[in-house]
Amino acid sequence: METKSRTFLMVPYYLWMVLFVVAPIALVGYYSFFDIQGNFTLANYQNFFSGTYLSLTLSSFWYAFLITVFTLLIAYPTAYWITKTKQKQLWLLLIIIPSWINLLLKTYAFIGIFGMNGSINNVLTFLGLERQQILYTDFSFIFVSVYIFIPFMILPIFNALDKLNPGLVDASNDLGASQWVTFRKVIWPLTVGGVKAGIQATFIPALSLFMITRLIAGNKVITLGTAIEQQFLVTQNWGMGSTIAVFLIVFMVIIMILTGDREKGGNQRGNY
Questions:
Q1: Distance CA 88, CA 86 (A)
Q2: Which residues form a coiled coil (predicted)?
Q3: Best label site of 45, 81, 150, 176, fewest CB within 10 Å?
Q4: The CATH number, out of the four listed (1.10.3720.10, 1.10.10.10, 1.20.120.450, 3.40.50.880), of the domain defined by the range 32-258
Q5: Does residue 270 register a pLDDT over 50?
């Protein structure tokens, strides 16, 4: 009876997965085999492996890599510092609150900050310096992207650091290990699971950014997400847009597999 009851309770979950996960992916795969006239073709996949889309893919991976690296470099020390403070929950709340604000509003706020008549340029002119073109550059795109993704990198790293057994760090110090050796041999290996989760939450969405590339980078940065948007909304070539989406899904699955945490068990306090 328990087995039947569990199976019955899982029905809504299976229906949700089929309707909102499997079906959309299947439709994307289906439309990828049609050209702009609605004829069946494999040309979309052939075009994807042409020079244009391959360079676009490499560019997307490069920008996603940069965004992830800079986010990690900021998030890890920040998460470590938060674990050492007395007001952990308060600091976490202050980090999480900006993620509740609509992404479009935050993007327009940075347009005002980075614009030629924005806050930064006003400060530069006050200091007697010339106004600089900050908006519509690689710097502005990466900066805004890192700002947006930082909470999603900090949270899993904080959870991993907060669960770290402090006795292991104390033991390493008692044995004469330097702080760097302790970090490299003890802290990092035991928190790498949180880092992987943060990379998933940052790298994968960074591959498909499109609104920030349009508003902050002025379409000077083209990603796979931008290409999909243009194919669906501008050229109306749903087949090519679906093909790019298929490869984007494949890339995401590969990244999830590579960054998946295969370790079992947990690094809990105590038991030492």
A1: 6
A2: none
A3: 176
A4: 1.10.3720.10
A5: no
Please give the average per-residue pLDDT across 138-167, as a whole number.
Answer: 94
Q: Nearest-CA neighbor of 237 among 248, 228, 225, 250?
A: 228
Tell me: pLDDT of 8 over 90. no
Angle at 197 between CA 212 and CA 90, to 5 degrees: 80
Flag whether pLDDT at 266 surpasses 50: no
**Which residue spans within 101-202 are E strands per DSSP?**
none
Angle between helices 138-162 and 188-207 (to 10 degrees): 140
What are the domain boundaries of the chain? 32-258
Q: Please, are residues 95 and 157 in contact by the beta-carbon 8 Å criterion?
A: no
Q: Give the gyration radius of the chain's Cα atoms.
A: 23
What does pTM read for this prediction?
A: 0.88
- Rounded CA separation 251/266 (Å): 29
Q: Classify 80 as helix, strand or coil.
A: helix
Closest CA relative to residue 202, chosen from 60, 67, 58 = 67
What is the secondary structure of 167-184 as a DSSP string? HHHHHHHHTT--HHHHII
Alpha-carbon torsion 202, 207, 208, 209, what sign?
Answer: positive
Which two tokens mark 228?
């999909």
